[in-house]
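QA checklist item 7 of 12: single-chain prediction sanity check.
[x] sequence parsed
[x] length recorded as 563
[x] structure emitted
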Amino acid sequence: METHGRKRIKGIIIAAAATGLVVIVAAMFVIVRYTPTKEKMSGYKYFDIDKNTDKVLVMIDGESYPDTGINIDGRLYLPQEFIADNINVGFYYDKESDATLYSDTSYIYAFKKNQNDYSDDTGKIYTMDYSVIRDVDGECFIAWDYVAERTDCEYQYASEPDRLNVTLKSEAKQCVTAGKKTAVRYRGGIKSPVLEYVSKGDRLEYVDDIDEWIKVTTVSGYTGYVKKSEVSDTFEYVREQKAVEEHNFLLKNEKITLAWFQVSGTAGNSSIDNNMSTISGVNVIAPTWYSVTDESGNMSSYASADFVSKMHQRGIDVWALVSDFDTNVDFAQLYSSKAARTNMVNKLVGEAKSYGFDGINLDYENIKSAYAKDYLQFVRELSVACERNGIVLSTDNYKPEAYNRCYNLKEQSKFVDYVIVMAYDEHYAGTDAGSVASLPFVKEAVEDTVQLVGKEHVIAGIPFYTRIWTTTDGNTTSRAVGMQAAINQLNSDGQVALWNDDCGQYVASYTVGSSTRQIWFEEEKSIEAKMQVIQQENTAGVACWKLGLEKSAVWSVISQYNK
């Protein structure tokens, strides 16, 4: 009996032990299953970076550029060309002087490689406690600290791997903040490895909702997942824009009504007298006086002090136009040469002081992407000289499109007083028949330019001409004529034009013999439709190409809206 009892007790003990073991195992299972892992994913693995690299990963608005930066003496440097292409186009490498140039609207600074001293264009010497420019295997690198001070951006350093995360875009983003110290995980789920721990109050960019998890991007560049319960509701965040030194813009206190005046020789200046009796409201005349003639930056000139005096007596400013229409000039060589750029600057500023004109109008219409950065540097250099001498600087530009993005209107607007958008040549010689400047085309041109540079700097260019299109046997040709000449052609043909609301113009299409003739007219009503658009955008004014092609009645229309 006693032995049997002991066996029974032993059985109970075993059973209890077994039960306890089951409980322990179950508890361990629960703990293992429901306890978040603390395993960290290597940043090198996440970003696919070689752990042994000595280069720095750069991220810009979500785009990654591995092996881009380099640390020198504890300071981050980035390639000059990379900076100009992706971060700040203002940092320009001048091959002729083997120096990096940077303009802050008042001075042009020149930085030599591996030197702590640098100079401005007046000869003044400055000293830094580090070299802004370093030579690395023959390549020019710029200190990020210097770039960041002069760039409107947010940025964050991080390590493992060494990386720089830069935010240039200033659009509103949806964000959340961490409610406590929170793990950002590679995937949604507590067993997914940790990318980074963020602290209470840290801002995370919201990407997506995934059940109980939210996909986010951290300021250090990781994109992963956090528990929805551990972050705030989404809110709109706009990064604070960094104030950068602005050009001392020479803007008129009144709306500008500019008329381009085409002359082909000094004798042509006197013909302005024939136009003055019919125009009204014009406060700026831009005569076509200068044209670049060679790669050294020399120019032809039709400038006239008498012309300037006549205009000033009438209260009209003179902005001398300079063009780049000479196809024999190697413009790539011209703009890339510091000596040639300096020659152009000195010529134009010197002529302005000599003849007394008030502004310079750059009508450079042949800029190619291959030398666009060189052209922009010329604009900066001319701008600095104009500011010092109280000369208004304006540039003529096409309607913004992908193909002409190299003109970089945003960069131009940092330095020039006015950006003139040529809201015409929608159709031109060599294209199919169509309007020179339909209302939708004008509207889009003005709106897109305002969005890029700000309404206070935009002057809307409109045409005083139209094209008479003739199609014979499938071959289309055209000739540009003034307003009245187009009307005379219609009357001579015994035809009538009908108003088209879609294009905001009178339109005529009819048969003449074996040919089809088409005309999209410019006259008072079409000009009024354009001026309504310009008024709605509240631009700095209007520019008209060209004086002498208009009907006198359009001036009262322009004055009605441009005030």
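[x] summary fact logged: The mean pLDDT is 94.
[ ] second reviewer sign-off
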